[in-house]
Design a protein that fits this description.
Layout: E1 23-24, E2 48-49, H1 62-66, H2 139-158, E3 165-166, E4 182-185, H3 188-201, E5 206-209, E6 215-219, E7 227-237, E8 243-253, E9 256-259, H4 268-275, H5 286-292, H6 295-305, E10 313-318, E11 333-338, H7 345-356, E12 366-372, E13 383-386, H8 390-401, E14 408-414, E15 433-444, E16 448-460, E17 472-474, H9 475-481, H10 487-513, H11 517-520, E18 529-539, E19 542-551, H12 553-563, H13 581-596, E20 600-604, H14 613-621, E21 624-629, E22 642-645, H15 654-667, E23 674-676, H16 683-693, H17 700-707, H18 709-717, E24 734-737, H19 740-749, E25 754-758, E26 768-770, H20 773-786, E27 804-808, E28 813-822, E29 825-834, E30 846-849, H21 855-872, E31 877-886, E32 889-896, H22 904-912, H23 916-924, E33 940-946, H24 948-955, H25 961-969, E34 974-977, E35 992-998, H26 1001-1015, H27 1024-1027
Parallel strand pairs: 3-8, 4-5, 4-9, 10-11, 20-21, 20-23, 21-22
Antiparallel strand pairs: 1-2, 5-7, 6-7, 7-8, 10-14, 12-13, 12-14, 15-16, 15-18, 16-17, 18-19, 24-27, 25-26, 25-27, 28-29, 28-31, 29-30, 30-33, 31-32, 33-35, 34-35
Helix pairs in contact: 3-12, 3-13, 6-10, 7-8, 15-16, 16-17, 19-20
Organism: Camelus dromedarius
Keywords: ATP-binding, Ligase, Magnesium, Manganese, Metal-binding, Nucleotide-binding
Catalytic activity: 4-aminobutanoate + L-histidine + ATP = L-homocarnosine + ADP + phosphate + H(+); beta-alanine + L-histidine + ATP = carnosine + ADP + phosphate + H(+)
Length: 1032
Amino acid sequence: MVQPAVHCFLPPPPGAPHIPFTKHFHLHVPGVQPSSSNPAPSSLVPRTVSTQGQDSRGLIPLGDLMCLLLTLPKTHHFCPPQLSLDPLGPEWDCPLGSKDLEEEEGPWGGGSGLPPPGFFPGSWSHEVGLDCKGSPEGAEARAWTVYYYSLLQSCLQQAGLPETQDRSQVPRTGCPGAEVTLCILGSPCTFLSVLLEGGVQSPGNMLLCLSPAWLTKVPAPGQPGEAALLVSKAVSFHPGGLTFLDDFVPPRRATYFLAGLGLGPGPGREAAELARDLTCPTGASAELARLLEDRLLTRRLLAQQGDVAVPATLAFTYKPPALLRGGDASPGLRLVELNGKEGQETLVKEEVGAFLHSEALGDALQVAVKLSGWRWRGRQALRLYPRTELDPVVDTVLALLEKLEEEESVLVEAVCPPARLPFPGSPPPGPELALRICAVVCRTQGDRPLLSKVVCGVGRGDRPLRHQNSLPRTLEVALAQCGLGEASQVTDVRRRVKAAAEAALAAVLALEAGLSAEQRGGRQARTDFLGVDFVLTVAGRALTPVALELNGGLCLEACGALEGLWAAPRPGLVAEEAAAAPLVETMLRRSARYLMEGKQLLLLGAGGVSKKFVWEAARDYGLKLHLVESDPNHFASQLVQTFIHFDVTEHQRDEENARLLAELVRARGLQLDGCFSYWDDCLVLTALLCQELGLPCSPPAAMRLAKQKSRTQLHLLCRHGPPWPAPSLYAVPCCPLESEADVDKAVRQVPLPGVMKLEFGAGAVGVRLVEDAPQCHEHFSRIARDLQGEADHPGIGLGWGNAMLLMEFIEGTEHDVDLVLFGGRLLAAFVSDNGPTRLPGFTETAACMPTGLAPEQEAQLVQAAFRCCLGCGLLDGVFNVELKLTGAGPRLIEINPRMGGFYLRDWILELYGVDLLLAAAMVACGLRPALPAHPRARGHLVGVMCLVSQHLQVLSSTTSRETLQALHDQGLLRLNLLEEALVPGEYEEPYCSVACAGPSPAEARLRLLGLCQGLGIDGPHYPIAYFLSHFK
């Protein structure tokens, strides 16, 4: 179908006499029978439009012109041609006169001007303290502060949330430099989604500054050229949408800063300067914004990515920036570098002619001509021409070339043909509808992009469709309104949008990784979220999203507007997950790194090969580790700041050793911020040493209580509350065993079958199911003979002795709960499910995370673990609690008063983006870990253990360590190596963990089962399908 011509004429230059004129629109629609309203092509009648609607520059707003475009026969309900530009400024058309846009009012101009005369319906108090002591504002800046405060109140009120309470008369005190402070400077409307989510994930730490005067940059000691950012006044956000206007004395130090840097009026220049060269992480900078808002640069970037479709584009670029020079050719994107703007007529005509006839345009019937460059973002006129009209396109390109400055471009690009969506039955009356897809994608743990939310706009096809002139709705609703309601097709569109949006952010992150700190606007400047605008078109008989624009705030604002439908609880509505949730998690993660960078930590016990991640993580986080270790030749001795060789295995001398180590620390002049351990042998000694050095830690008595398994259970059995439910409800009857005589006594007190285990053991070594008294005596004698001291089996706690206990055997499913506690408060909990253990030795076989339990059962396990820790006096730290879920509720197996072992730290980091190692280090420094209040898993992991006794042959041949590592590096499995050597023995621990990821537990389980069968891990004596059966 041939599209109509739309001829938009340039306005007269400034100062030229005004000459009245009319504009003609030739409407030609083949297939429409001639009539009085649709004359035949041979008798086209010019349609005259009055110029009374012209603005002061002699232009008719393009929005009005679009209303005059063609009427099509209603045989299909479809999306009309999409403009590959979304003018984000307040106007569609802009005069291309000689005036430099840098001089106009706006964030990069000489002055922001006064705010628009806003009308905010509603009622709230205006008697609030918006002045910031010591930072007076001028009349213009004050007007913006009042405007933004009123806008915030209007947004809160329309979302059904309470008015901001003014607490500024009583300044808030805190611990500058020791607390998370997430600071946003920008429009409340743009960032409301982030602010509300931050109030949930980190209550009281998400701050909105309504004026640059509320912030101060101060030079950072020891970091030349960088500055710390101090917050003197802000609106703080809390759960339930509660907000408070607060003053801070002393000022809070920002640990993360995000400023609104988009075009438009407002204090943009000050925001850009505040964001530059900060010591704290920043989520945006003027330098990065200039790159991302350059349409040609980002389009080339996406075209080179290969996974993102972009409109075919011809670009004439005048003295292009270094990032656009050279490089590989991009499919569908032609760059013509110009060293001058004059005398280019022949070149332009040749290039445009070749482009209009090239196959790259596909089925496109129209092209758009526009300008590209930071100056023109959101301010340029858009001109549409039929693909068949060469001369008008050439003339427009030549006219626009005269306006270019260095590093700017003129683009000629295809207008993506619409995806015709057949509407079931008769299409609804009214104009054709246009659809625009907006995707918000966030940077997550490991710099991996994650699609956060998709929001669509639907509007009249005869008018420009922009972010703020269409109502946001979900992808499913929008596609259904355009005639696509089949679930499988909608799922496919969402999958394609997700892949393209995540690939777009990956391309941006790759670009930034190659930039210098100066080019990014600071050492800590990164892009943490991105908005990608798409239009749907058909490519290869498939609905394909084509990326039109990259932006930040507008897509985020659209998502916030959609979420506003559920901001306040209403009956029958289910709250949507916030688009900003992954972004806030990234803010917290980067804040934690910032707070911990350069911290001096004493670590007791290096551990084995399973803890190799510690040294890589410490280097990545910038931690300064000082190691105390019994093995003088340990590989980690070369990876730390200070290595202290000291025998930590003689636990009868822990008090004395703590005093000796404290003297060594002082003698070496170590200025420690914290001291911690993740190694079972060193936990009590660590608590004693922290006590000697005056460093934060759980009390030594609590560590001793948790370390000895029978004492843990017997102590909790006596804790009847209040409060209720009391810890005694989770404890299991048991009896300590130190001699043969104790065995006879225990058999009479503990119901059989029972479980015998080492009092201070680890890794399930020496654990056994016993069914009668003879088995109890036999196992006690075997352990007394085989495991007498540390040398018999290093690393399982034999330095404490080989005393045992007998406890009742509990039927039920086994689970691990990994907790983060600070000041007795539960900050985070992660529940995993274990498969059936290999009896009679209780060796772990399989695991799944996150748990497949119902939410109520999961909550019961978390509360059981939390209350048992509190009952033992464990108030600060990262703890691993093993429980069984019985028909009567959770029952405690044991408490490990340290970070979970095996694969747990790795899995939690992968799925939730939370690093238990970093959390433990923060607690050790007396800092509240920067964790999201409700971490969300980003997938599922299912894994199995490999044992030397069962897999020695395959681990020595086809499934060697090198083979498994190669599969891990390819992303086909997750490998956690737990032992260095393949050494068989009666008391064995797992050699390694092999896991597969998936979007669902079922898919992860199937992948793992197939992989184990292919690698030879599965077998008659090690039935993987049975071990995984618990996870169905």
